[in-house]
Amino acid sequence: MLIEVLKSKLHCVTVTEANINYMGSITIDEDLMEAANLIAGEKVQIVDNQNGERFETYIIKGERGSGCICLNGAAARKVLVGDTVIIMSYAQMDFEEAKAFRPTVVFPEKNRIVKK
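Above: the chain sequence. Below: its structure as C-alpha cells.
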C-alpha cells in the first residue's frame, strides 16, 4: 500500500510578486528550493494564511538569493503581494517507509535561509 505524506514545506514565506500574465506556476528562489528539497516542475500545494485559499501548481526556479515568491497566471488571483503562504509538496511511499520518513521543513526569515 502506498500513502501520500508531507515531503517538503516552506513555512510562512511572503509573496513578493503576482503576475497574472504569466502562464501559470509559482516561481521560488533557488536557495529556498534547495533548502526545502524542492525541484523545478514539482507539484506543490499553496496555502495563503491571510485569505485561506488553498491551491496547487508547479514550481519554476527563481533567481538564487532573490527571495522571490511569485504566483503566476491564474494562481496570481488567489494571493496579494505581501501575503504569507505555506508551500508544501507530498510524496507517495510505502506505508512502512512512511513511518520512518521525516519531511524537510524550512522556516525562512524574510524569504531567506538563515544559517545559525
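The mean pLDDT is 96.
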